[in-house]
Design brief:
The protein is an alpha/beta fold and about 350 residues long. The protein has a single domain, classed as Rossmann fold (3-Layer(aba) Sandwich), CATH 3.40.50. The chain is about 40% helix and about 15% strand. It contains 12 helices and 11 strands. The strands form 3 sheets. A 7-stranded parallel beta sheet has the order 3-2-1-4-5-6-9, with helices on both faces. The protein has a two-stranded parallel ribbon with strand order 7-11. Strand 1, helix 2 and strand 2 form a beta-alpha-beta unit. The chain is globular, with a radius of gyration of 20 Å.
């Protein structure tokens, strides 16, 4: 990872913490363990913890659990070499034990990449279900555990109904059970149910986060989502191709906000409750493509000839997170696009596409 990107990420973390670090005061002196710790979410949580320790003296001990810890050492050496960071090579589907003294666990393992969900739905569901079971069992053995955050998905709600501007946590929906495309969402629904069962039966302090969509550094442009394709097209000189319905509404949270929200929910979320994590600033995909084109400059936008109308909105209501936990978005969409494009330009100048 280029040094200038590392510096910009640290600046992003300091920005989101300014005047708000006290909201994470429960992490002072804590031992935090993150499964899926070397992925997109885990990397940003690690960056935020580094900022908390260096700039605010939080003294957090951080354990990152992942199957490819070596890759993380190569990609983020500035984090891996920190004395308070411990990298553990492990597959959460196998029986393992969290370090004694762990106070907070964030279970963020599991890829949201829908290509693998479609090609291996059985593997997707078993990995999420079994992995969650193993993590819950391991957490129950921790004597000093204060909180366990299970990272679920906004996809558990199923399709957003026409006329519903934003999806609240109280919405009762669900993915289509007769489609392999629902494997990930159904597995996340089961993981939530399993976590809630542990909450009721064993009093485990489990809280849930339901992430929506994000845009920012460390997110590979090879991922199969519209915003990633738009960014990649723009960086390659265009045109930006809109292959789906340009009227589809999405929203995107910048990852420094994402990491702050996740840690805030882990610290102060009500056990047994779920919180949406995302931006409520909706944008149509056509508008998003035009925004990316303007920011990049010199790039055209093309649409599928004859039009395409099959809108599938995906926008959260984040009122609960705002009212209960004081959470808000600090980076608007335009700034998020500017920062994301800049973070990837060095890779493209070097002839490489940024991956995760």
């Amino acid at each position: 990872m280029a040094t200038d990107v590392t510096r910009s990420v640290r600046a992003d973390c300091l920005e989101v913490l300014e005047g708000r670090a006290s909201q994470l005061s429960d992490l002072r002196g804590a031992h935090l363990a993150v499964t899926g710790g070397t992925g997109f979410m885990g990397s940003w949580i690690a960056e935020l913890v580094c900022a908390l320790n260096h700039e605010y003296g939080f003294g957090v001990e951080l354990t990152l659990v992942a199957r490819r810890a070596r890759t993380f050492r190569e990609r983020h050496p500035h984090i891996a070499r920190e004395s308070f960071v411990r990298l553990v090579d492990a597959d959460v589907r196998d029986v393992f034990t969290f370090a004694e003294g762990t106070n907070v666990v964030v279970h963020a393992a599991g890829s949201p990449d829908n290509r693998s969900h479609a090609t291996d739905p059985i593997g997707t569901m078993s990995a999420i279900g079994l992995g969650t079971h193993v993590v819950l069992e391991a957490a129950e053995r921790l004597r000093d555990l204060n909180s366990l955050l299970l990272v679920s998905s906004g996809l558990v709600y199923g399709a957003q109904p026409e006329g519903l501007e934003r999806i609240p946590e109280t919405f009762v929906g669900g993915p289509a059970f007769d489609s392999v495309a629902s494997a990930y969402a159904e597995a996340k629904r089961f993981a939530e149910s399993l976590g809630y069962a542990h909450r009721v039966q064993t009093k485990l302090p489990v809280v849930f986060a339901r992430p929506f969509a994000f845009i920012g550094p460390y997110q590979g442009l090879d991922k199969p989502w519209a915003v990633n394709n738009f960014l990649r097209d723009a960086l390659l000189g265009g045109p930006i191709r809109i292959l789906g319905d340009p009227g589809t509404r999405r929203s995107y949270l910048y990852p420094s906000d994402m990491a702050f929200w996740l840690l805030r929910i882990a610290c102060a979320g009500t056990p047994g409750d779920a919180y949406n994590v995302g931006s409520d600033e909706a944008v149509q995909l056509g508008e998003l493509a035009e925004l990316i084109a303007r920011v990049q400059g010199g790039v055209d936008v093309t649409r599928r000839p004859g039009g395409f109308r099959n809108a599938s909105d995906f926008v959260p209501d984040v009122t609960k997170a705002a009212l209960q936990l004081g959470l808000r978005r600090t980076v608007d969409l335009s700034s998020a696009v500017e920062r994301t494009l800049e973070s990837h330009r060095a890779d493209f100048r070097a002839g490489a596409v940024a991956g995760t």
